[in-house]
Amino acid sequence: MIKIATIAVWLTLAAGAVAAMFHITFEVEKLESRLHEVNREIVREQEAIHVLQAEWSYLNRPSRLETLSKELLPNLSPVAAAQFTTFARLPKREENRKLLEGPNVSPASFESLGRVVVGGKSQ
Question: Which helix (H) or strand (E) holds 121?
Fold first, then answer.
């Protein structure tokens, strides 16, 4: 009787080990396929980044930007040397105090006109 119980225990342990091995094998295969899929996605993203960098370089060519600026910004002129200054040449605050303390207009003065402006339209 002890031999039958021992054999049954060993068969149960062997069956459990086989089931565990199959389960682990299938999990490893599933994880390997996921790893290959992620690696393929990484390669696709790297290729897309490479293409976008090439497009960005193409669109930022100085000759193209110069042509576009001449077409779209006809009044834009290069910066003249006279437009640069230093902090020492800037006017002091005391000199501009009168400009900063100009007349104050309160919202009540607009109501005296008899019309209300809402959304840029008089009502």
Answer: strand 121-122
pTM flag (> 0.85): no
- Is 2 within 8 Å of 10 (Cβ atoms)? no
Q: Answer positive or negative: Cα dihedral of 34, 39, 43, 45.
A: positive
Q: Which residue has the tokens 């437009």?
A: 83
Question: At CA 16, angle to CA 12 and CA 17, rounded to 5?
Answer: 120
Beta bridge partners of 122: 117
| Helix residue ranges, H only, 60-101 | 62-72, 97-100
69 neighbors 78 (Cβ within 8 angstroms)? no
Q: Is 48 helix (H, G, I), strand (E, B) or coil?
A: helix
Per-residue pLDDT in tens (0 to 9) along the chain, 123 residues = 788 899 999 999 999 999 999 999 999 999 999 999 999 999 999 999 999 999 999 999 999 999 998 899 888 888 888 888 888 888 777 766 666 666 555 555 544 455 544 544 445
Q: What angle do CA 4, 7, 10 make, to 5 degrees?
A: 150
